[in-house]
Specification:
354 residues; Membrane-bound Lytic Murein Transglycosylase D, Chain A; Glucose Permease (Domain IIA); ten-stranded antiparallel β-sheet; three-stranded antiparallel β-sheet
Length: 354
């Protein structure tokens, strides 16, 4: 009995002593287990059957639904009978981005699509672009052209042209698109800024005869036989006549540049204008002329301001009595030798604007 009791005490003592060690071992084992599980998972992922080495290519990873369209690779589709590919423009595409995706210069890509992409800064979503097989100049085959004639024109070997375009049949069709490999391409066109709208001069010109307002002949059809025929008029007057004595100051109807000053035998009123001044008011949209003067006070190339004196009223040239023959033109005076661009000065000036 004593021996049995001693044995039980010894066993209990051993059990109690082993409890802390067991708890520490459990924690260590738990941490080890966690690390082992992570390691196994990583190894398992790297050795899964789908990722194991294989002679067949792995499937492409599926793009996330939240990834932008431009992150996806750009792929063209073959055009039957052509070495060019067809590519559909996506959101976010630019000419340079598409060119880079296919390993081309921007000019190569542009001139292969210049008809459908007139502005190199603008490509449209859904637009089909032709992608050349390599850098070079895309050309449309002209009627009668042959592979040899095209190769000779651009200084390349015939076989080089055949290979670049995968030509199994060297009989060309007019309008067919070919790439001339290595040929220089023109630079991208520069978009011109739109011309500013022409100013509206109606009613904005100053009266050209200082303090003299008597109109002796109006613009348009007239019964005076000295005027030329124009349109349905047997005699047509292309300006406005303002009467007054010799020496009346003649004023610029608007600011501009003097383009003629002096004697002019013809080119005004269909006959001799005498001493004249012509002024361009900028932009090629408005000109005024002052005719039959007795003197001028400006010279060619001089800038004048509205209301500045340019000469004096007179009777030089083909004039009947002292007056100013004043003309308004919306093109260079007498362009083409006719008066189609002459306009009624009374629509542009008013005696009240002095």
């Amino acid at each position: 009995m004593v021996a049995l009791a001693v044995c039980l005490v010894l066993v209990a003592t051993a059990v109690m002593a082993s409890l802390p060690i067991a708890r520490l071992g459990t924690a260590a084992n738990d941490e080890t287990a966690t690390n082992d599980a992570t390691t196994v998972t990583a190894i398992g992922a790297s050795q899964s059957p789908s990722d194991a080495p294989s002679d067949s290519p792995s499937p492409s990873p599926q793009a996330s639904s939240s990834a932008p369209a431009t992150a996806q690779p750009r792929v063209g589709t073959a055009i039957p009978g052509s070495a060019f590919l067809a590519y559909t423009v996506r959101a976010g595409d630019t000419l340079s981005r598409i060119a880079n995706a296919f390993g081309l210069s921007v000019t190569t890509l542009y001139w292969a699509n210049s008809i459908s992409v007139p502005d190199p800064q603008l490509v449209k979503i859904g637009q089909i672009m032709k992608i050349p097989p390599m850098d070079g100049l895309a050309i449309a085959v002209q009627p009668g052209a042959t592979v040899k004639s095209i190769a000779d024109k651009y200084g390349i070997a015939t076989q080089e042209l055949i290979d670049a375009n995968n030509l199994s049949d060297t009989t060309l069709v007019a309008g067919e698109l070919l790439l001339v490999p290595g040929a220089d391409t023109p630079p991208l066109p520069v978009k011109q800024a739109p011309a500013p709208p022409a100013p509206n001069w109606l009613g904005k010109l100053l009266w050209p005869a200082y303090k003299h307002y008597r109109i002796t002949q109006v613009f348009g059809c007239t019964g005076w036989p000295g005027e030329p025929r124009w349109g349905t008029c047997r005699h047509y007057h292309d300006g406005l006549d303002i009467g007054g004595p010799t020496g009346v100051p003649i004023l610029a109807a608007a600011s501009g540049t003097v383009i003629y000053a002096g004697w002019r035998k013809a080119g005004t009123d269909g006959a001799a204008g005498g001493i004249v001044v012509w002024i361009s008011h900028g932009g090629g949209t408005l000109y005024t002329t002052y005719n039959h003067l007795s003197a001028v006070t400006v010279k060619i190339g001089q800038h004048v301001t509205a209301g500045q004196r340019v000469g004096s009223m007179g009777e030089t040239g083909a004039a009947a009595g002292t007056h100013l023959h004043f003309e308004v033109w919306v093109c260079y005076p007498w362009s083409g030798g006719n008066i189609s661009c002459a306009r009624n000065p009374l629509l542009y000036v008013s005696p009240s604007r002095h």
